[in-house]
Amino acid sequence: MPLRYDAGMPTNFIRNESEKESFAKRLLGYLPLALKRHILYVRRQRRWGNFRNPSLFTEKMQWRIINDRRELLRSSCDRRANRLTVQSSCNAAGLAIELPALVAWGDTAPEMLQELRRLHAEGRLPEKWVLKPNNSSGRVMATEGEPDFALIEAALNTWTPISRFHSLHWIWPYVSAQPGFIAEGWAGPASAHPEEWTIWVVGGKPCFYGVQKRIEGLQAARGFFDGEWNDLGDLYSAIVQSPPIGMASPPPHRAVMDEYATAIARNWDFLRVDLYWADGKVWLSELTPFPWEGIPFMRNIRETIDIPIGKRWQLPSRESAMESNS
């Protein structure tokens, strides 16, 4: 299903990274995991990575995918489970995080569609809400006002087959996450887009930021900053041109965002914490333990992420990483 966005339509994709796997990719899915990750890495980075003794961020992320089976990771890609995990971490730190309202849950596409139709008939759907698979990434649909159930049904059916994280791009926590679909309320007022923050916490310290404000529709002003708030430019500009976000100095609420991200990632050696800033409050977006799978299409990645984050990130020992035999 191609990405479709029409500001005049009530139901639209915010992101829809659905993809059909070719016959060749399905065959590659049967290869040993380490070999698959090497193939993907070479394809994106144009060089062979060192996954046995990694030093770069991109290499350490491949090490995590191949080796890390700690219980910490097991439910990290389960959207519904993370609501409780994050709330518990914030409560322990004396912080009250806002969770988008849990509107509906469905184990299967027909169940989810039936539940959404029922809530709509009863007048219980929020004015604005989002729909996502529980055990995947890069797939989000937003509805404002009257739902387009034909498009919703098409999305659910498209998202039902196993995602790339279960085959060629195999990543354990996506496989162990509960299959299903989750609908959540909007973060903050329905009339505004929340400010989106991705905060990279390494060894308990935030050291890299992505900040995004949607202007209208999918158009977004975006910025990337290091721990000292040096502007790194739009690292995505080779793919999508985005206007700069215009944050020459950190906003006053950066300290609040840091406090929440640090509390949520307190037990992690590395975690990207995705938060919203809306209505003067911090809202949960999601946890991202595998940003871009460590194989991003980005400019200047070696200078901005690979070397500096790689130096900070201390991987666990191989023995402790193999907690689970699953």
Please characterize this protein's 3D structure.
The protein is globular and about 55 Å long. Residues 1-7 have low confidence and may be disordered. With 326 residues, it is of the alpha+beta class. The chain has a five-stranded antiparallel beta sheet with strand order 1-4-3-5-2, covered by helices on one side. It has helices spanning 23-28, 33-45, 57-67, 71-74, 79-92, 109-121, 149-159, 172-176, 254-264, 301-312, 318-321, and strands at residues 11-16, 102-106, 128-133, 139-144, 181-185, 195-202, 205-216, 219-226, 270-278, 281-288. Helix 2 (33-45) runs antiparallel to helix 3 (57-67), helix 3 crosses helix 10 (301-312) and helix 6 (109-121) packs antiparallel against helix 7.
Radius of gyration: 19 Å
How much helical structure, as a percent, in the residues? 25-40%
Global morphology: globular
Counting H and I runs of at least 4 residues, what is the number of helices? 11
Alpha-carbon distance between the termini? 33 Å
Report the average pLDDT across residues. Answer: 89
- Main sheet strand line-up: 1-4-3-5-2
Helices, strands, pairings?
Elements (H helix, E strand, L loop, with lengths): L10 E6 L6 H6 L4 H13 L11 H11 L3 H4 L4 H14 L9 E5 L2 H13 L6 E6 L5 E6 L4 H11 L12 H5 L4 E5 L9 E8 L2 E12 L2 E8 L27 H11 L5 E9 L2 E8 L12 H12 L5 H4 L5
Helix pairs in contact: 2-3, 3-10, 6-7
